[in-house]
């Protein structure tokens, strides 16, 4: 992130600009990925949003929204702690609404409205997976980060008493993702507009509820989400996505048993693919991973491992992962 900061002679520091109202590929043209400032906004919501009441529903502070948008568009450094999650969520929704054609694009958006009407859930998942993976990589990355954040918020809504279930989130963010569900400036809503908004909410709810399904966003996108957010992501009952290890040139190879105990990027839980001892280690990890969004640090609790030397070795591996990944 710091490598993207450009010092100027007057000692002001500038970072990547986040343009509003232009196609996403122009926003991400410098590094062909999500700009650092936009990524920071999403990660703050990912971390703090699950414990905030009415996040994405309650409006942000108008003056602070204008200030934050100005900083983003001019590339000025900003102290993100000065802005509430409500202000950040409102700015993010505005950024998405301003994307020409929306984040999905007109054709893919129309296709989503057709897919959601199908009765077979598995068929809907497969078709949505094909649709999402056909989008440009930057669109896929932004979508998986946003819907991973929505899922984290929805999964804790009851425990944290935030009121932001998947349905409530769908109602709040549908116009930002599916622009065709909003009437074209007409003050009086027609019945077809109301119906389309309802269907758009169903689409958003389906994507949030099925975020942890392997054939929805795809393996590469789930790996990206786990790497960027720092969360351990349990996909269905078979895979756990976490940080990747650094290349073999940086660390010595580890045994399959140690690899399973230290929660690698893709850890199979079936007995046919790992030894019985490794499976036991995964089962222990799965107990704490029942919370899909348990922090990676939880997987390193000392209760996981009886051998302190093994714990030290795994800590070294993860330190390399933070440095080189």
UniProtKB/TrEMBL annotation:
<dbReference type="InterPro" id="IPR000198">
    <property type="entry name" value="RhoGAP_dom"/>
</dbReference>
<dbReference type="GO" id="GO:0005096">
    <property type="term" value="F:GTPase activator activity"/>
</dbReference>
<protein>
    <recommendedName>
        <fullName>Rho-GAP domain-containing protein</fullName>
    </recommendedName>
</protein>
<feature type="domain" description="Rho-GAP">
    <location>
        <begin position="22"/>
        <end position="215"/>
    </location>
</feature>
<dbReference type="GO" id="GO:0007165">
    <property type="term" value="P:signal transduction"/>
</dbReference>
<dbReference type="InterPro" id="IPR008936">
    <property type="entry name" value="Rho_GTPase_activation_prot"/>
</dbReference>
<dbReference type="Pfam" id="PF00620">
    <property type="entry name" value="RhoGAP"/>
</dbReference>
């Amino acid at each position: 992130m710091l490598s993207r900061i450009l010092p100027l002679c007057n000692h002001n520091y500038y970072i990547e600009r986040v343009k509003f109202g232009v196609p996403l590929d122009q926003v991400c043209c410098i590094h062909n990925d999500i700009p650092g400032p936009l990524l920071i906004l999403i990660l703050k919501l990912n971390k703090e949003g699950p414990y905030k009441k009415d996040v994405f529903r309650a409006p942000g502070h108008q003056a602070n929204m204008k200030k934050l948008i100005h900083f983003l568009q001019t590339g000025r450094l900003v102290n993100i702690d000065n802005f509430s999650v409500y202000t950040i969520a409102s700015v993010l929704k505005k950024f998405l609404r301003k994307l020409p054609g929306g984040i999905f694009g007109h054709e893919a958006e129309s296709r989503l409205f057709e897919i959601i009407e199908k009765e077979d859930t598995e068929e809907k998942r497969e078709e949505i997976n094909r649709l999402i993976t056909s989008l440009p990589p930057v669109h896929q990355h932004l979508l998986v980060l946003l819907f991973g954040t929505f899922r984290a918020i929805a999964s804790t809504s009851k425990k944290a008493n935030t009121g932001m279930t998947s349905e409530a989130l769908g109602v709040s963010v549908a116009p930002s993702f599916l622009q065709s569900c909003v009437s074209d400036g007409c003050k009086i809503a027609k019945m077809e507009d109301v119906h389309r908004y309802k269907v758009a909410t169903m689409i958003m709810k389906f994507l949030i509820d099925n975020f942890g399904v392997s054939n929805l966003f795809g393996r590469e996108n789930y790996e990206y989400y786990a790497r960027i957010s720092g969360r351990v992501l349990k996909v269905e009952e078979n895979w756990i996505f976490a940080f990747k290890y650094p290349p073999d040139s940086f660390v010595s190879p580890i045994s399959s048993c140690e690899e399973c105990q230290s929660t690698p990027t893709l850890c199979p839980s079936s007995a046919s693919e790992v030894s019985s001892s490794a499976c036991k280690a995964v089962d222990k990890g799965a107990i704490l991973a029942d919370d899909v969004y348990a922090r990676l640090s939880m997987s390193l609790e000392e209760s996981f491992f009886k051998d302190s030397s093994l714990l030290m070795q795994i800590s070294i591996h993860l330190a390399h992962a933070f440095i080189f990944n």
